[in-house]
């Protein structure tokens, strides 16, 4: 909820920091979004190795406290470049959700990991649902700056709750003898090609999703002809995928555990392609809202099932490592999506971003279909 409070309005906040044209705002928004993800992509593998040696709970405390400080400082920013620097600082401390996923995955029986991770994701999507609505109302009543301070408070609260209530039965990963170490980081995985395809899929899915985030409030503003409570409506539109995701994600996770996560994943790509494409051709916020609501179903099929397949096909002692890689690929997708999403919107228009996202989902589906055909034929056994 803390992160989603400010994400839909970051582009509007940038517009308030200077006298910028439409194309400048979209391109600056892409840069601001990308700064966090660029740094996160570099730092995530390091944090993953430390988590496997020191524990995942420590990483939860590090991430929540560090991002609280960065978020609070963003409320004092007076220039775009200060905002870029603080977003980069946030990237250094990123990783609360990925470490929570690694903690749950490492302490849940593998045959139930799909249901467990999908249930955990309802916390993420519930926050995605509540954050933009609360942030939109606060931005309308007070100011966008206030949402940064509330975000910092929520993250400090998360730090305290994690410190007191999260328990972890952690066993450090023993160091391998030098003679057993391999230069190939995928050598320890029974299905390295599958792991690489899943990590690439994370990048592509996140690329498509995040390319829309910098422009969604601007798209709503255009559809509303700059009249009415734009921040409130933008917050509601941004939250709608979370509503359907809350109901769809646990059910799809249980179905995947019984019938094969690969089948759920393929359904997610087909459904996402069908739902993203018409978003580029809508003429009202009502139609956009309906289609954004449906996107929550595809998100409930894609993100949890990729993580479930990574969990089921990774050695348990490398759980944090593989989730840190997943975070890095996600961060790279975030960075590329932010930059290219703003660039596409600035050169063409907002609708081009939705059309390009639909094409990306189709390309990712083709990649999985041809490179790992076992996903559509069999139920993969846990490693």
Automatic annotation (TrEMBL):
PROSITE patterns: MFS (PS50850). Pfam families: MFS_1, Sugar_tr. InterPro entries: MFS, MFS_dom, MFS_sugar_transport-like, MFS_trans_sf, Tet-R_TetA/multi-R_MdtG-like. It is a multi-pass membrane protein. Keywords: Cell membrane, Membrane, Transmembrane, Transmembrane helix, Transport. The chain crosses the membrane at residues 25-47, 59-78, 116-138, 144-166, 194-220, 226-248, 260-278, 352-372. It is found in: Cell membrane. This is Major facilitator superfamily permease.
């Amino acid at each position: 909820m803390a992160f989603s409070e400010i994400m839909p309005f970051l582009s509007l906040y940038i517009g308030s920091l200077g006298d910028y044209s439409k194309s400048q705002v979209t391109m600056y928004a892409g840069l601001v979004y990308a700064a966090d993800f660029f740094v996160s992509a570099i730092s995530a593998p390091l944090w993953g190795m430390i988590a496997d040696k020191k524990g995942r709970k420590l990483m939860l405390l590090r991430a929540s406290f560090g991002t609280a400080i960065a978020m609070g400082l963003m409320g004092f920013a007076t220039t775009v470049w200060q905002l870029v620097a603080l977003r980069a600082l946030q990237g250094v401390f990123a990783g609360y959700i990925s470490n929570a996923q690694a903690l749950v995955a490492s302490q849940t029986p593998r045959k139930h990991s799909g249901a467990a991770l999908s249930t955990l994701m309802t916390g993420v999507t519930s926050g995605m649902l509540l954050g933009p609505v609360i942030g939109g109302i606060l931005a309308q009543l007070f100011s966008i700056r206030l949402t940064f301070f509330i975000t910092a408070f929520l993250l400090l609260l998360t730090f305290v709750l994690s410190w007191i209530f999260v328990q972890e039965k952690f066993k450090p990963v023993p160091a391998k003898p030098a003679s057993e170490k391999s230069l190939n980081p995928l050598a320890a995985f029974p299905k390295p090609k599958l792991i690489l395809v899943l990590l690439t899929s994370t990048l592509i899915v996140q690329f498509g999703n995040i390319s829309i985030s910098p422009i969604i409030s601007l798209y709503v503003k255009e559809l509303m002809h700059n009249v009415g409570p734009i921040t409130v409506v933008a917050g509601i539109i941004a939250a709608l995928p979370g509503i359907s995701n809350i109901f769809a994600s646990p059910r799809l996770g249980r179905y995947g555990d019984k019938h094969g996560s690969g089948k759920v994943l393929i359904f997610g790509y087909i459904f996402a392609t069908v739902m993203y494409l018409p978003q580029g051709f809508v003429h009202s916020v009502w139609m956009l809202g309906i289609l954004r609501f449906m996107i929550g179903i595809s998100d409930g099929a894609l993100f949890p099932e990729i993580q479930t397949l990574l969990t089921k096909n990774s050695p348990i002692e490398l759980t944090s490592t593989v989730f840190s890689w997943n975070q890095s690929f996600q961060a790279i997708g975030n960075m590329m999506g932010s930059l290219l999403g703003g660039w596409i919107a600035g050169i063409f228009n907002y609708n081009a971003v939705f059309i390009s996202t639909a094409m990306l989902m189709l390309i990712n589906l083709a990649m999985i279909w041809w490179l790992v055909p076992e996903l559509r034929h069999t139920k993969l056994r846990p490693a």
